[in-house]
TrEMBL record:
<dbReference type="GO" id="GO:0005524">
    <property type="term" value="F:ATP binding"/>
</dbReference>
<feature type="domain" description="ABC transporter">
    <location>
        <begin position="5"/>
        <end position="235"/>
    </location>
</feature>
<comment type="similarity">
    <text>Belongs to the ABC transporter superfamily.</text>
</comment>
<protein>
    <submittedName>
        <fullName>ABC transporter ATP-binding protein</fullName>
    </submittedName>
</protein>
<dbReference type="Pfam" id="PF00005">
    <property type="entry name" value="ABC_tran"/>
</dbReference>
<dbReference type="InterPro" id="IPR003439">
    <property type="entry name" value="ABC_transporter-like_ATP-bd"/>
</dbReference>
<dbReference type="InterPro" id="IPR027417">
    <property type="entry name" value="P-loop_NTPase"/>
</dbReference>
<dbReference type="GO" id="GO:0016887">
    <property type="term" value="F:ATP hydrolysis activity"/>
</dbReference>
<keyword id="KW-0547">Nucleotide-binding</keyword>
<keyword id="KW-0067">ATP-binding</keyword>
<dbReference type="InterPro" id="IPR003593">
    <property type="entry name" value="AAA+_ATPase"/>
</dbReference>
<keyword id="KW-0813">Transport</keyword>
C-alpha cells in the first residue's frame, strides 16, 4: 500500500538553521501526530509536504505524488489548517468557507452544500452567518478546520489546531479531529508541541527534535504495559520522608529507579517508579519497605504515558 506520506533523507536548511535534518518517514492512513517543541521543524515539514517550500535535500511524496513537481495536484487532494490566525474578520464563516471551496474548484451549488455540511460537522452551524471577527478563538479554529475539509480531501495537515484553546476547547478540537477520520475516512497529520494530548487522538506518533527524527511508532507501542512498578509508602517517626528512605534502600539493593512520573503534579514526589525485573522485584520492594518499618500504600504495574517515555529516554533512563 502506498504510504500517505513518505520522506527520504529530507532536509531543509536555512542560512542559519537546519530546520529538517535527513528525515526518513513512512506514514500510513489514520490519524498521525507530529510532535516537537517550538522550532522543531513541524511547520517547515508541512510546507514542504504541500509543495509550497522546496526541500534542500532528499525526497517527499504525499499520496504517492512527488512534492517537488506535483504541488498543485497535492493541494487538490490535501486540506491545510495553518497555525496562525488567517481569517478575514468582516465576512461570515459561510462566506469564507464557500470562498475556499470555490478556490478549490467546486461549482457554486456544491460549494454551498459542502460548506453547510462541514460547518455542521465542526459545530458552527448556528453561528455560520455571523462575522468571524466576533468569534472566540475556539470558533476561529473550527472555521480553519472547516476550510481545510470543505473540498473533501483525502488527507488534512493540521498545524497546531489546539493552540490558544482552554482544556475544554482542546478536548473538543481533539474529538473533532478524531471524527474527521472515523466519520469521513480522511487521514490526518496533526502537529502539537504537547506529546500528551495526542495520546488519545492519534494512531501513530512521530516525534522530531531540532529537525531530527526521534521516534516514529504506533501510539500503543509508546504506551504499552511496561515493566514499571509504581510504589507509594507511608512516612514514620524514624523515617519522616519514607519515600526517600525506600528510594535509597532500593538503590542499595540494586533495583533500578526510574524518574518520577509527573514531577509537576502535587503528590508526585511520593511515588517511586522502579524497573521490575520479574517477580523478585516485588519481593525486594515488599521486604525493603517492611524492613524500614514503613507501610506499603500501593505497588502497581503501570502503563506509561507517551510523554513519560520520552522524558525518560531524553534523560538517558531506559523506558
Ligand atoms: N523562512 C525561514 N527562514 C529562516 N529560518 C526559518 C524559516 N522558517 C523556519 N525557520 C527556522 O526553522 C526552524 C524550524 O521552524 P518551524 O516553524 O518549522 O518549527 P515548528 O516546529 O513549526 O515550531 P513552531 O510551532 O514554533 O512554529 C526554526 O528554528 C525556525 O526559526
Amino acid at each position: 500500500m502506498t504510504p500517505v506520506i513518505a520522506t527520504e533523507g529530507l532536509s531543509k536548511r536555512f542560512p542559519r538553521v537546519t530546520a529538517l535534518d535527513r528525515l526518513s518517514l513512512d506514514i500510513g492512513p489514520g490519524v498521525t501526530g507530529l510532535v516537537g517543541s517550538n522550532g522543531a521543524g513541524k511547520s517547515t515539514m508541512i510546507k514542504i509536504l504541500l509543495g509550497l517550500s522546496p526541500a534542500t535535500e532528499g525526497r517527499a511524496a504525499v499520496l504517492g505524488l512527488d512534492v517537488s513537481n506535483s504541488g498543485a495536484a497535492i493541494r487538490e487532494r490535501v486540506g491545510y489548517m495553518p497555525e496562525h490566525d488567517c481569517l478575514p474578520p468582516d465576512v461570515s464563516a459561510t462566506e469564507f468557507v464557500v470562498h475556499m471551496a470555490r478556490m478549490s474548484g467546486l461549482p457554486p451549488a456544491a460549494a454551498r452544500e459542502r460548506t453547510a455540511d462541514t460547518l455542521r460537522h465542526v459545530g458552527l452551524y448556528e453561528e455560520r452567518y455571523r462575522p468571524i471577527g466576533g468569534y472566540s478563538t475556539g470558533m476561529k479554529q473550527r472555521v480553519k478546520l472547516a476550510q481545510a475539509l470543505v473540498h473533501d480531501p483525502r488527507l488534512v495537515l493540521l498545524d497546531e489546531p489546539t493552540n490558544g484553546l482552554d482544556p475544554v476547547g482542546r478536548d473538543e478540537m481533539l474529538g473533532l479531529i478524531r471524527r474527521v477520520h472515523t466519520d469521513f475516512g480522511i487521514s490526518v497529520l496533526v502537529t502539537s508541541h504537547l506529546l500528551g494530548e495526542l495520546e488519545r487522538t492519534c494512531d501513530h506518533v512521530v516525534v522530531i527534535d531540532g529537525g531530527r527524527l526521534l521516534r516514529s511508532s504506533s501510539t500503543s507501542d509508546f504506551t504499552q504495559m511496561t515493566t514499571t512498578l509504581a510504589i507509594e509508602v507511608t512516612d514514620s517517626d524514624t523515617h519522616p520522608d519514607g519515600t526517600a528512605a525506600v528510594r535509597d534502600a532500593l538503590a542499595a539493593a540494586g533495583v533500578t529507579l526510574l524518574s518520577a512520573s509527573e514531577p509537576g503534579l502535587p503528590g508526585a514526589g511520593h511515588i517511586l517508579l522502579v524497573e521490575a525485573a520479574g517477580e523478585q522485584t516485588h519481593d525486594v520492594v515488599r521486604d525493603t519497605v517492611a524492613g524500614l518499618g514503613l507501610g506499603l500504600v500501593r505497588m502497581e504495574q503501570r502503563r506509561h504515558h507517551i510523554a513519560e517515555v520520552f522524558r525518560e529516554q531524553k534523560e538517558g533512563v531506559p523506558a
